[in-house]
Amino acid sequence: QQQVKQSPQSLIVQKGGIPIINCAYENTAFDYFPWYQQFPGKGPALLIAIRPDVSEKKEGRFTISFNKSAKQFSLHIMDSQPGDSATYFCAAGSEKLVFGKGTKLTVNP
Amino acid sequence: NAGVMQNPRHLVRRRGQEARLRCSPMKGHSHVYWYRQLPEEGLKFMVYLQKENIIDESGMPKERFSAEFPKEGPSILRIQQVVRGDSAAYFCASSPRAGYVGYTFGSGTRLTVV
Question: Which residues of B touch A49 (CB under 8 A)?
């Protein structure tokens, strides 16, 4: 009940493409769903987060879509850039977070 | 306004030695969380502390690991008698109050056990 399943494991897109990363959770008590971006050798940085009372949240080029009934949420990156190449982690929780295993995104120029 | 500070950035220990990892939270933050990241894995929760209190240590291995957050000074994650399997990146995050999950992570300590 504590797992968060993330897919795909890796993703390669061309500059300008729209990579989509998906996550599924099991615990219906979770009420906070953030996405983190991590560059090699760095700590995870909070990118965007959503609460279960909304179905979509947009911040700049990053959008979270949330489907409460399916217990799934996804990250879309619009107009992706080579500088977006990083590992992305979804997470879910209420006070402590359960993380997915990460998606390594490569954006080719 | 400094972020969460962790030191050392890299730590090498021989099997059987002790490792001490330090975390200074953001100014005004009194809640600290420790997470561990194994290679090619996501972060896993270890322990949540307030000043002078352990709130949740459900993710801590039962033996060899301990954590504290004293009234003064940084939070310390202590690993006694390290083994190769302890090699990982250890991240600390801080928040200003209970129930606040939009916390900020430090840059981590990368522990290598040789």
Answer: 101-102
